[in-house]
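Good day; I would like, with your permission, to put a structural problem before you. A protein sequence and the structure tokens that stand for its backbone fold form the material at issue. I would ask you to consider whether the tokens describe a fold that such a sequence might reasonably adopt. I set the record out below, with my sincere thanks for your time.
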Amino acid sequence: MSTFKIAIDGPAGAGKSTIAKSAAKELGFVYIDTGAMYRAIGLAAIRAGVDPDKDIQAVEKLLPDIKVDISHSKSGQLVFLNGEDVSTEIRLPDVSVAASDVSRIPAVRSKLLDLQRSIAEKTDVIMDGRDIGTVVLPDAQLKIFLTASVEERAMRRYRELCEKGIECNFDEVKKDMAYRDKNDSERDIAPLKPADDSIIVDTTGKTLEESVDMLLNIMKERREV
């Protein structure tokens, strides 16, 4: 029996993770945040004193010793880097930038691609990221490109960080987000863009509940087709 795959792509701060997580719970699907995997590798580079924007070879040398694992608990998805739970640390602003930088490296994408696809072959999934519909799960039965204005996305991320007690500055968060948008859209390997058969959903001005309801309606309609 084949699994049902839902791919959600979009820029940083569009609400992919929050909305996909809520929708997965409602549908009984497994939620996979692929961006967290790139964040884990970005964190490994930072810890090793490597700048992934300037030294690709150094990042590649780290890869054989990096093991990224995903597990699920009642509180949500947990991310492990070489056995250490780094679920909170990978959300720091500097790790966000490093994640965008390592995602441009072919060897990094190749390392994570097999892991992502193997999960989707075993169970019904909602997987979010930057290239899920175009590269990771091109056979997904439903592809959604989720977006919002950069100002709104930056404010959402700023509030999220503040709620977690992470010291940050709105202008810096917005600057980092604009950097990631440019980086993700212009990279040579699997750039951020809607799949040809994706449904584009703009959540600007919508509450979380409104966004989740909108996505659930689309998902339920597609499953009934």
About this structure: Strands lie at 5-9, 30-33, 68-73, 76-81, 84-85, 125-129, 142-147, 199-202.
